[in-house]
Amino acid sequence: MNEIVFGRPIFGEEEGQAVLKVMASGTLVHGPKLKEFEADFCKFTGAPYAVAVSNCTAALHLAYFYLGLGPGDEVIVPAQTHTATAHAVELTGAKPVFVDAEALTGNIDIGRIEAAITPRTKALSIVHFLGMPVEMDKVMAIAKKRGLFVVEDCALATGTYYNGVHAGLHGDVGCFSFYPAKHMTTSEGGMLITRHEKIAQTIGRQRAFGMDRHVGERTIPGVYDVQGLGFNYRMSEINAALGVEQLKRLPGFLAKRAENHKALTAALQGVKGLSMLLSERAGSVHSHYCHTVLLDDAIAPKRVEIIKYLNGNGVGTSIYYPHPVPYMTFYRQKYGYKEGDFPVAARISDNSIALPVGPHIGLKEMEIIAETLKKALKAVQGELK
Ligand SMILES: Cc1ncc(COP(=O)(O)O)c(C=O)c1O
Description:
Blueprint (H helix, E strand, L loop, with lengths): L12 H13 L6 H14 L3 E5 L2 H12 L6 E5 L4 H8 L4 E5 L13 H4 L4 E7 L8 H11 L2 E5 L7 E2 L2 E2 L6 E5 L12 E5 L2 H10 L30 H32 L5 E3 L14 E5 L7 H10 L16 H7 L7 H9 E4 L7 H22 L1
Parallel strand pairs: 2-3, 2-4, 4-5, 5-8
Antiparallel strand pairs: 1-9, 6-7, 8-9, 10-11, 11-12
This protein binds pyridoxal-5'-phosphate (PLP).
Pyridoxal-5'-phosphate binds next to helix 3 and helix 4.
């Protein structure tokens, strides 16, 4: 049986050669590859500025650190997201204030944002859930009215466009992830993009201890000053070299994802017992991180059996995300959130199965996934009768 894994990075000769070249150069950090990757990512997204960092969580943390958030401050965060989206706020001492999802897309329910804003709110955190573009014009109207900074968490949104503009360029900063299962990978890696020169310059320093001169910028070796706090959130030359090569493959990867997603949507149309999240928005582009099906409530208690059937028959799956973040033990214990507080996000967590559509597989695999899922549904529906 050939296993259809949920995600697998695709590298060629070019990545191998690029990494070997960096090793031979002797410059492993603060070198030309970082600058090349940042410039290429600007070209791809249309961003004026890009700052490469060690991962997306670091990029998010840097955004809130730049803002100077601390105890007493609040940030609006979607309940349906990766824990990193909230942790990045929490790490500054500020409080994430969660807002439920909208049922059709899993994105933050924009209609509930204003009610969650208080005089302590400093920023809005917006996640393009699984690559589905959030209606950023509506978000930005609220941000403008209330004077709030907007952080777009684009960890799953490389290749997502809203009204012709790449995700991450609607708000003040956009933060990307290049973790292995993502649209492209640098093994670990992240990028922050922005339209603001001052943000790019400041965060560019804060990612490397707050030093005023990086290694290549010093006139006298070893001499620098530190004008503020900072982290070691740098990206290495090896990661950046991978990024430069992966970016060249990215348009092909994205086209394959879109083709796979479309085929799987068609194959699952009208299948009894499930529905699908909305994956089209006029004038916008979804980056298709995965294909999420939502089991009907009557079948959802059988989800583990369905997943086991799929996995047992060679179809890899995942769940995005296993619980709304406020239901995770840390946030429950700290803030007292309870079952029922975020029903829409919880339904997505409890009823969904994420299916693979990455460029490592093709149309034949989409057919196998659809057929295997239909068999799994039939098997549990038979049991339910
Ligand atoms: C929405 C979201 N934000 C942030 C992250 C964290 O990304 P990284 O692993 O690059 O820190 C993830 C990881 O998958 C994510 O899904």
